[in-house]
Amino acid sequence: IKNVRKQIHFNEYYRIQQEIDEDVDIGKILTRIEKYQAAVDFNRRNYEKFLLNISEYRELKQISHCVLHTYAQSLFEVFLVSFSESLQKSDAGNDPPHHYLEEAE
Asked: What percentage of the chain carries pLDDT values higher than 70?
């Protein structure tokens, strides 16, 4: 019975890891095709899913850098695009969303 539990735990961990890896790839694709807000929302959800699962599956720590990097990169891209647009428009009311940069840090 103990081996069966270990196998179930391993299978569930492997499934979650694959799901998170796939979501990281999707988040990178969304950023690459310049769907920045969708990328931020998707990567935030993936990061939250990662946080929920890491307490039960400590082995997931090994992929934490990928999840965090993808999320931070999408936030930074939104900031850069917004900053560039605000410079082009040069209106006082078009400040870039600094909260994205702070969240990325």
From this structure: 81
